[in-house]
Model the fold of this input.
Amino acid sequence: MKYFIAVYFILLCLRVTAQQKYDVSLIPKELLPYASAVVREDEVTCEIKNFDYSNYHIKRAVTILNESGEKAARVFIWYDKITSVRAVKGIVYDEAGWPVGKFSEKSFGDYYAGNDFSLFEDTRVKFFSPAAVKYPYTIAYEYDIRTNQTMNINDWVPAKQTGIAIEKSVYTFSCIPAFTIRYKELNLPSKVVTGTNTDKLVTYKWEINNLKAIRYEPYSPPDDNFLPMVKIAPVNFKYQNISGAFSNWNEMGKWVYDKLLTGQGTIDPVTVAYIKNITAAVTDPKLKAKKIYEYMQQKTRYISVQVGIGGYRPYPAADVDRLNYGDCKALVNYTQALLKAADIESYYCVVEAGSEKISLDPDFASMSQGNHIILCLPFKNDTTFLECTDQKAPFGFMGDFTDDRIVLACTAQGGKLLHTPKYITADNLQQRTATLDIDAEGLLKGTIQTTYKGTQYDNREAIVRELPAERIKEYKKIYPINNLEIEKLELVQDKGLQPITKEQITFNAYDYASVNNGKLYFLPNIVNRRSAPLREVKNRKNMVFINRGYTDEDEIVYNIPAGYKTEKMPLNVSVDKPFAKYTATVTLKDNRLIYKRSIQLIEGIYSKDTYPQLVEFYQDVLDADQYSVILSKGNN
Amino acid sequence: MQTGGTAKLTKEWKDVDLELKTAYYFGDQVKKKDIFKDKLMPLLAGKTDTLERAKIAYNYVQKNIKWNEFISRGSWDGIRKAFDKHTGNVADINLGLVAALTAAGVNADAVLVSTRDNGIVSKLSPVLDEFNYVIVKTDIGGRIYLLDATDPLLSFGLLPIRCLNDEGRVISLNKPSYWVDVNRQSEASTSALNFTLTDNGKLKGTIINYLFGYDAYLKRKDIKKFNSKEEYIEDFDEKRPRLKVISANIANLDSLDSPLTETYEVEIDTYDNLDATRLTFNPFLFNRITVNPFKLAERSYPVDWGMPSTERVTLTIHLPPKYTVENPPKNINIALPFNGGKFVTSFDAQANSFVFSHAIIFSKAIYSTQEYPYLKELYNQIILSEKVDLVFKKN
Done:
């Protein structure tokens, strides 16, 4: 009996004293600030035993501290026709680390996960979200993935999201000695540890411990400038039945050209003859290309279909010619074929598209970089790039989607890194002039003219596509003029080689000025006001990154009623910083009140100490933009 | 098909009532009060007040099941399973709430509603498919409370805006069903700002915000996204570069039935210096309205805000001795027809200080198309008066 009591007592002690592995109180205190979730452990292993397939094992435990951390609790497992998922299991723990619930593969929902703009993709996702009703709690799970290819190897990015601290994260890659990899470590506190394991596989291991949560910092540079990560790519690989090898962009471009593009560019002789015919009268090759591009735009539509290797290989130009649709690869390949019919050389280019300028990494070639294809026309002294998926884009216009970044041209001679055109601060110009009448009752009327150039050409793109009545509704939303009544609206796009959007609005607005005791109060900055300050960030970590510059110029003349004078200090603000310039003035000449505003943001990367100045800059802009004129009659 | 029998295609409410009362996904679940008996008894011990008992049951459901973000007018796998797994759809949770209230000895009925996204239901004949959501009604002390336990931050009697849509149909187990108006709640905020203009051009003083009803709920949701009140306050500070928080306090964050109170002691950079003989000052320091939300000349549909709202701000400014307000504003009192709402300002100057207060009150949840022009004009008047700056003149 004594024995039993002793055992019971020992067990009781264990229960009372031994802390559970995922007890929330075991999280190091320094990891808590700004963290809505803490990754307790994250172990990913990737194993390649032959060239046909790779196996991943993922094991992860995350503690969710509050509602904002819920996104870190969600389990997404992506798969497709060549990727299978196995052995999914997990447990949810309470605050003290005691298990409160289990889940397995059948607890997961299973969903189509292609892009919503796609006609068909085979990507699917298994999704699970735990049902814990009380914070904090911990979710721990593991699963296996097998993918029948060795071309893409998952990168390791231990902390992608803001608000998530990492206690421990480990990535182990192992492969047969014949399989070699290239890797690039970025922002890592410690380097790789290599070795050989008991299965005689070569191993690479990266580990990171006690990483504090990242806070959201506006104007941060692209992720690979500050997030710890490792990029991995194979030297020799197989993607189902296609094998390949490359160590640099030149070799990769060659491989793409030989294995994925060759033979896809044949088109019907009738189409070739047609192209020769429509371009026969044009001699300048650039204008010839423009003609062909515009023909392609009116003929085709963008439709995305991505299945297996079809995610990398365009389908034949002859198919696009017959069906009149294709995805970015197919449309670029088709346009290339049409240009070839007119003897114009062009390159199929891989690009990472998006408003944030992300270049392909010049010293690290991999198939996992880039998400879009564009076409390059290497004219002498004038390299032009074409976006082939947009029926409305002007010839050679990149906009903010693919401008100013390194892309890979895949040619018969191998891959070449090219830089797409850059739109500088002065190019991205919005210019506005207006002459307006304001009367003693506060009624404002007149005409505003605005032109948009460079990347700002796109500013009215969504409205241009609307019907006239809808356009007017949209303008009422974007122009903060109370009681705006648009009498006439003209919106024209010049799709020449330097595209321009022109807008002219004739309008009236009663009560624009407030009348009080015979005085008129109104904001002279009519439609280009900054509405919110830029938030401060204490102890900022990142450099200040201005992705793209622009220039806005406004000059508005108000004809004010006779006999009125300004009552207030006139506006005269001028801020000149290395990263931005702003001026705003109000002057009165007879009965003409002239408001001038100019703002420039200058792209570039600036030290993190610049950030408070940027906050101050925007606050100064905000204050000056809110300046109100007070006009009074008589002898004040 | 000619079988000789009749099939009713258009039903009456009594047919639908019967269908719902006997349906597995609805009536069967409401009756399962035994699920909650054992759990609730210890919590209810010694409590005799009905409202208190109702709140305990409501709290219990809020804290023991998590909404899986699915809306439905019926339970999928039964509430027993949902409560075992601590997760369920809207109907699992709220039919469970009816059962839990019944277990606590509080009258409760399920109410079918259609969410705002889903549109308004037809009143001519019952169309069950038009309802997509279930809430709960209980009558305590002569007052009707409508409840939804899908969010633990909702106070007793408060519904999320998604289900504030026209009327709901009360499905009682022992009475014929009937309509109930779901618009029974409001949102309100009262702010007291008290500042002194210092010689170096700063406004120093306190901001106190009292938030009631739905306003309090939304603010609680905001604050709970942060790890701590301190991180929320830091965020509040960082979002306002001209404002520096010296100290702050948030009260009643977890006491859902009390108004949420925020107190900030702050310093606001307002002028570079006080050298000028005239300083302009806009007394609408926060939430100034500059753009009319209503832009159309006329509307085809009513304006439905879901609930009435009240916003009151009282601003007290102590000026340096030499300054006076040159252009004291006239008091404004503009009202909508039929007590629909009003905009009121009042200005009261003392020796070296003044009190400026304003209130924007919308006393209805829904404004008809006939009322629309008045509503639009009220906003126009608010904007006009918010444009007018005060001028502080140095004597």
In short: The longest strand of chain A covers residues 37-48. The two ends of chain A are 104 Å apart (CA to CA). Chain A touches chain B through 46 residues (CB under 8 Å).
